[in-house]
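Session log. Operator J.P. requested a structure for one protein chain; no other inputs attached. Running the standard single-chain path with token output.
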Amino acid sequence: MSTQGLPMKVPAPGLPARVRIHEVGARDGLQNEKETVPTEVKAEFIHRLAAAGLTTIEATSFVHPKWVPQLADAEALFPLLGDIAEAREVSLPVLVPNERGLDRALALGARSIAVFGSATETFAARNLNRTVDESLAMFEPVVARAKAEKVHVRGYLSMCFGDPWEGAVPVAQVVKVAKALMDLGCDELSLGDTIGVATPGHVTTLLAALNRSGVPTTTIGVHFHDTYGQALSNTLAALQHGVTTVDASAGGLGGCPYAKSATGNLATEDLVWMLDGLGIETGVDLAALTATSVWLAEHLGRPSPSRTVRALTPPPSPPSHKE
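Structure written below.
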């Protein structure tokens, strides 16, 4: 780990004083793993993330096991996390696709949920087996019931910057679906760059358009994938616009099982390194977080793709040739 006061804190004007990291590694990260990760490893991963100072950790998804088999253990996993929510005041959002998923989540005491929509018709059809309008209609009773139960609701919107089948996605189209999603009653909106094609000007243009439509910056989070190495630059553009919620995945885990060109999420360690250097508070202990990602990488059998994890982790010692 860094022991020489790096990164040096050099604030830049016009940036927020604090950023809330919405950690998605345990859900969005692990859902794309080919090999099943044991429930106890997932629980330990989430406990370690909380100990590192993350206060919003997306725990799992209550989708049908047929569609995302890696998260089929939601009922077994969630009860193992109750001590985190109580002792550390950590929010543990879960993804719910429909009313049945909501029933399962509420039965286990979930107090924060997310629904997952699409800005494009092709991805809606492939991911939800519905049109965009049909998916919004499916979410309507889910959001209404959750709000009646005083449960926090996040609305994910995927393919906000590009779609592998449809190509460029018009800003007006994204705004229309985003506004409809928020009008259902969602508390916050996460803009997903599912295949990682966004660039900073595109980010600020979309954010400004959302503001003009009546969606305030305070309700918006950003979710960037690093396919073309643009995730941090896009995040900085969002911060300059006033966004204070950023999605990231410990160790850079993740992708999307329904969009094969989607690569890993923005690594939480890379994000924290940048924010630390800017003097922006996150409450996250980078050393503890890096150690957590190294630990999980060992369980997954491959090194973390996070540049910061690699930079801060000493290489293994060469084998000894002593007799």
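Operator note: Residues 132-148 form the longest helix (17 residues).
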